[in-house]
C-alpha cells in the first residue's frame, strides 16, 4: 500500500480534465501528494522548467522524476503503486481501454467541443455528429456500472474527467443537453455512478465556476 512519504508533486489546473484525472488516480491509489495549482495563461517558471517541450499541465514529479501527458502519467501511477489497479490486466482489454481513451481525448473532447462552438455546418449537424461519436461510448458501457467493470478504471478516469465534468458543462452553458437520458441511458447511469464516488466528487471542478470558464474558452475558439 502507498505510504505517506511518497514525494509526489502534481502541477495542475483546476478546470483541466487532464489534471482532474491524475488527481482521481492518485486518490484512488491512496498516494499522498502536494498539489501545485498553475495559471495556464501565465505560466510559472516551474512549469516551463519541468515541461519545456509541451509547456502544459499536468506534470507529475515523483522522487525527482518528471512526467507529462496525463495518459502516460496514469499508466506510470498504475505501475508504480500496484494496489487498486487502474488499467485492465488482460492485454486485449488493456489495449481497448487505451484505444477508447485516445478516442475520448482526440475526438469526443476537443473535436466535438470545437465543432459545436463553431457550428460551421449549423448547430443541428454539429450536435448530431457529436452524438454519433458519443454513441460509441454508450455501446461500450452496455450492462456495466463503469467502463472498468464494478469500479472505476482507466477509461472512467479519462472519459469522466473529459465528458460529464468538462465538455458537457460547456455544452450546458450553451443550452445544449448533448447526453439526454432517453438517448443515452447507459451514460447517464454511469455519470450518476461516478457522482456517487467520493474521490471523484473531491476532484471535479465546481459546476457553475467551470461553466463560466468554459464559456470563456468557447469565446476564444469562436474568435480564433
Ligand atoms: N495531452 C495533454 C493535454 C494537456 C493540456 O491540454 N493541458 C492544458 C490545460 S487543459 C494546458 O496546459 N494548456 C496550456 C497551453 O495550451 O498552453 C495531456 O493529456 O496531458
Automatic annotation (TrEMBL):
One cellular-component annotation, GO: cytosol
Q: Where is the GST N-terminal domain?
A: 6-85
Q: Does the keyword Cytoplasm apply?
A: yes
- What is a single molecular function from GO for this protein? glutathione transferase activity
Compartments reported by the entry: Cytoplasm, Cytosol
InterPro entries per record: Glutathione-S-Trfase_C-like (IPR010987), Glutathione-S-Trfase_C_sf (IPR036282), Glutathione_S-Trfase (IPR040079), Glutathione_S-Trfase_N (IPR004045), GST_C_Tau (IPR045074), Omega/Tau-like (IPR045073), Thioredoxin-like_sf (IPR036249)
SUPFAM superfamilies noted in UniProt:
GST C-terminal domain-like, Thioredoxin-like
The record's catalysed reaction(s) read:
RX + glutathione = an S-substituted glutathione + a halide anion + H(+)
* Gene3D superfamilies according to UniProt: 1.20.1050.10, Glutaredoxin (3.40.30.10)
Instruction: Give the enzyme's EC designation.
Output: 2.5.1.18
PROSITE patterns in the record, alphabetically? GST_CTER, GST_NTER
Q: What are the entry keywords?
A: Cytoplasm, Detoxification, Transferase
- Coiled coil ranges: none
Q: In this protein, which residues make up the domain named GST C-terminal?
A: 90-217
Q: Which domain of life is it from?
A: Eukaryota
Task: Give a GO biological-process term.
Answer: glutathione metabolic process
Keyword Cytoplasm listed? The answer is yes
**First-level EC class:** transferase
What's the stated role of this polypeptide? Is involved in the conjugation of reduced glutathione to a wide number of exogenous and endogenous hydrophobic electrophiles.
Family stated for the protein in its record:
Belongs to the GST superfamily. Tau family.
Supply the name of the protein.
Glutathione S-transferase
Amino acid at each position: 500500500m502507498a505510504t505517506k512519504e511518497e514525494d509526489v508533486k502534481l502541477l495542475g489546473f483546476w478546470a483541466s480534465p487532464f489534471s482532474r484525472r491524475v488527481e482521481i488516480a492518485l486518490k484512488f491509489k491512496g498516494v499522498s501528494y502536494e498539489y501545485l495549482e498553475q495559471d495556464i495563461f501565465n505560466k510559472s517558471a516551474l512549469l516551463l522548467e519541468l515541461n519545456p517541450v509541451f509547456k502544459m499541465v499536468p506534470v507529475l514529479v515523483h522522487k525527482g522524476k518528471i512526467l507529462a501527458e496525463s495518459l502516460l502519467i496514469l499508466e506510470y501511477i498504475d505501475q508504480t503503486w500496484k494496489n487498486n489497479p487502474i488499467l485492465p490486466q488482460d492485454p486485449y482489454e488493456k489495449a481497448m481501454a487505451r484505444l477508447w481513451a485516445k478516442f475520448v481525448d482526440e475526438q469526443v473532447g476537443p473535436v466535438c467541443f470545437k465543432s459545436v462552438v463553431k457550428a460551421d455546418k449549423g448547430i443541428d449537424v454539429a450536435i448530431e455528429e457529436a452524438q454519433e461519436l458519443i454513441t460509441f461510448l454508450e455501446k461500450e458501457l452496455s450492462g456495466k456500472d463503469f467502463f472498468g467493470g464494478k469500479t472505476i478504471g482507466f477509461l472512467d478516469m479519462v472519459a469522466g474527467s473529459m465528458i460529464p465534468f468538462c465538455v458537457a458543462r460547456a455544452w450546458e452553458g450553451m443550452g445544449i443537453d448533448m447526453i439526454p437520458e432517453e438517448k443515452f441511458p447507459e451514460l447517464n447511469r454511469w455519470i450518476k455512478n461516478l457522482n456517487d464516488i467520493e474521490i471523484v466528487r473531491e476532484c471535479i471542478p465546481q459546476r457553475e465556476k467551470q461553466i463560466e470558464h468554459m464559456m470563456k474558452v468557447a469565446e476564444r475558439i469562436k474568435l480564433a
